[in-house]
Amino acid sequence: MKTLIATLAVTGAIAAAAPVAAQSQGDWTVGLGLGYVLPKDDNASVGGTSLDVEDSLRPTLTVEYFIRDNLGIEVLAAWPFEHDIKLGGTTIGSTQQLPPTVSLNYHIPTNTAFKPFVGIGINYTTFWDTSSSLGDLELDDSWGLALHAGADYQVTEAGALRFDVRWIDIDTDAKLNGAALTGVEIDPWVFGVSYVHRF
CA dihedral defined by 169, 173, 176, 182, rounded to 10 degrees? Predict the structure, then answer.
């Protein structure tokens, strides 16, 4: 208990001592981190059998420009995500995808080192290098809505640790050996952690 109290006291002291800077019009931020893509279960079905797109973890890059105080336009990029594809629990193929996303984020002013934000945007996902042991599998590109929420914890005057989550509407039309499958609804949650630097 004493250790816990001491830890909380130190954390509070650090938060109180951290420089507090506003997100001002004209500022740029660049973030480097990791993104974990967690598609929803039962993405589609083939002959009544569940088709699932598996999880993937990759490095991410964000760039944000503040068009107004606390209001920024952000672009998300990433190293290509690679997903195994399972049919009825058995791996039958894989695909790679890039999900560039543009969001409008509102950073809630708190006058503390802890700065939450919410955003909404548009995602474009492109698939390639798709293969399947069942034959020729094709996945069409996708446009969809993207929701974003998270928080920055300021650790220096210009640097912060970011924890965020996105929900992205990714629906793709699929063909197996030329025959159309039911729409594949990936609709992933994307969990991220990164270091963000303000310029």
Answer: 80
Say how many residues make up the chain.
Answer: 199
Rounded to whole angstroms, the Cα distance separating 33 from 76 reads 11
Query: Taking a C-beta distance cutoff of 8 angstroms, is the pair 18, 155 a contact?
Result: yes
Residue 103 dihedral angles phi and psi, to the nearest 5°: -130, 150
CB 185 within 8 A of CB 53: no
Tokens standing for residue 192 = 């991220």
**How many alpha carbons lie under 13 Å from residue 14 in its C-beta half-sphere?**
11
Mean pLDDT, the chain, integer: 87
pLDDT tens-digit map of 73-130: 999 999 999 999 988 889 989 999 999 999 999 999 998 999 999 999 999 999 999 9
Q: What are the φ/ψ torsions at residue 10 (nearest 5 degrees)?
A: -65, -45
Residues 190 and 124: their CA atoms lie apart, in Å, by: 14
CATH architecture for the domain at 2-198: Beta Barrel (2.40)
